[in-house]
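Here comes an entry:

___
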Amino acid sequence: MTTTATASTPLDVARTRLQSALTARHTRHTRHTRTPGNSPLPAPYVVPLGAADVLGFGHPDPYADTRPAANVQLTSRAVLIGPWGGGPDTTACGQCLAMRWQRLRSRSEREALELGHEPRGAVHWPVLTEYAVDAVWATYGAVARRGTTGTDTTPAGAGTDAGPADRALPQVTRVDLVTLATATFPLLPEPLCPACVQEVPDTAEAARMELGPAPKPDPDGYRLRTLDSYPLPTAALANPVCGTLGSDIWINPTSTTTAPVAGTHFVRGYAGLNDVTWSGQANRYATSRTLAHLEGLERYAGTHRRRGTTPVVDSYANLSGQALNPADCGFYTPETYATDPLVSPFDPDRAIPWVWAHSLRDDAPVLVPARLAHYSAGVDADNFVFECSNGCATGGSLEEAILFGLLELVERDAFLLAWYGRARLTAIDLASATTPAVRSMLDRAALHGYDVHAFDTRMDLAVPVVTALAVRRDGGNGTLSFSAAAGFDPAETVEAALSEVLTYIPHLPYQVTERRSELESMERDFSKVLHLKDHAQLYGLPSMARHAAEYLEPAAVLPLDETFADWQPLRPRTGDLMDDLRLLRDRLTGAGYDVVAVDQTTPEQHRMGLYTVSTIVPGLLPLDFGWSRQRALTMPRLRTALRAAGRRADELPEAEIKAVPHPFP
């Protein structure tokens, strides 16, 4: 196979030399091993990787036409051989590998490749010695024979994470050109690969959701399957060559309250490259790792649409009647649009991308702005809002994913109503909720010098919402730490809120000490609160505790059972998760809101038995980060919901809104 690409970079030059050397060895091998019935070794085809953008952001890839057929890719440090092996339903090509590889590069490498910079490097690098070429050839021959004979494809050198789900996938073998070390990693096919996937238009019919019975393991449970029952290809999800979610996953043994596990990767969005972190916080590292992988898959599905479909592009004015009105989800203030160069006001006459979703209220398809459905997607025309992962959730069925997505929206809405509305909350007597898990968490917090409190944060939607607050006893750095949770089981909801807040408190004092002067500047000028971490860390300053007086002086303290006594008769216990979803849907629609779900499920998730959705309830208060980008402050619900919840006799006056950044982590 030949290519018309011009050899102009050191990698191109090295590619030509490696191709020539491997072709010569292949010719000799074929001549000496040709026997009747013997399968010939496929010819090696080499392309360079790392000198051009393969994701389509920067300069066109000169090897784009032939890269899918490549079985050897040369980088500045290593040679990647494959994909090889795998089953008929998990085929991947050289373009799949290249796309996954590029997403794992460092920020500086990706910016250079994707922003159109010309590559610069040593003129004669990489160095391809004869022994290095021999190592590549020997490895190529070994994996090529394994890939064509159907022999065991257990990843060699991939560590102990590789399980049955990984062994069924195509493999990629890396040969380090400096050390000659080899390692093999599983590769998940790339759902947006232009060579493997034929894009089709997004359609209303495809978005229609047929929701129905979803039997639960027990009437009081809300997850349809256990965490360890999902066939997660953990080595394919995180590896340094072609990991879907990142190059690695790490534990944090310094945490003394939970057993955190996390990973990270860069995602290119409308604001550039963003560091997307995924994590799990449980009491066991094995459980935390599974939770981290599931959250990573949720982030992967939520940041961009990865289903090979093209959005509908049109103006709201033309789509009115079949599209959600973005104004119902909230806009920023006119001052923000006038001063923030990254956003501009919504224009109903401007064409923007839309995706089809399903309205649970109307049982009908509805179009929603792509920017509201996938929070790293976007174009200049639809930069009217910065969305985050509000309402995104993963489950073992669409019903489960939608339920947990809606619960997250309810949780965040209630938290913001309580904060901005200065609601006096009822504290939950945690002594009355003392399960072994709660007792352990309280003891671990106490060892760090924190007292932990929990509050009933329900508003007008009945479903239990709990805010947890950790208060440092001596009033030092890391004074306050907040978290929240929503769920149908009050005891489990308390545990979930406490577990999250315990994850933060070992590190908060150090974070505040490190950023003390910066955070004090934010306290003097809230416009400097720009990022997610700023909101939580700001309340680590002892002087910011004065803004949390409503939490430090609760309206009452009640036992857990008494706090949620009015909820228990409403809670379905039929054994069908659909009944739980119907209750929550009816609560929201009864309050006057639509309930919309966007199916974000990726092909990779389908293979694992997972579903991911983005739920949207236009009118609920959305969680935003950055003080100048708070849609909640402009929305009617902030004025009316406290009265509807019986917490005020009147609507919330503008003068009583707490104009202070929220502390949601």
In short: The two ends are 54 Å apart (CA to CA). Residues 450 and 472 are 4 Å apart (CA to CA).
